[in-house]
């Protein structure tokens, strides 16, 4: 494994101002409600940090 390799790029998403659904950056209309995404600026998706098993079991934040 190459430690100098670039991390995979996160996709650009547009969140619908009407229903909140995430859509691909090239979408013109929301896949959920059909609202126009013409004026929505794409944002880079950020991966969710998951809690470890022990944090889940004992209710602690990681």
Structure description:
By secondary structure, the chain is mainly beta. It has a domain at 10-45. The chain is built from one helix and three strands, in the order E-E-E-H. It is elongated, with a radius of gyration of 17 Å. The mean pLDDT is 81.
Write the layout of secondary structure elements.
Blueprint: E1 12-15, E2 22-24, E3 43-44, H1 53-58
Antiparallel strand pairs: 1-2, 1-3
What tags apply to this protein structure?
62 residues, mainly beta, three-stranded antiparallel β-sheet, 15% strand, elongated
Brief summary:
The protein is mainly beta and 62 residues long. The protein contains 1 helix and 3 strands; from the N terminus they run βββα.
Q: Could you say which overall geometry the principal axes of the C-alpha atoms support?
A: elongated
Multimeric organization: single chain
* Average pLDDT: 81
Q: How far from one another are the termini? A: 28 Å
Tell me the β content. 5-15%
Which secondary-structure class do the elements indicate?
mainly beta
Number of helical segments with 4 or more residues: 1
Task: Give the biggest sheet.
Answer: 3 strands, antiparallel
What string, H for helix and E for strand, traces the elements in order? EEEH
User: Major sheet: order of its strands?
Assistant: 2-1-3
Rg (C-alpha, Å): 17 Å
- The helix content, as a percent range, equals under 10%
The tally of strands reads 3
Low-confidence stretches: none
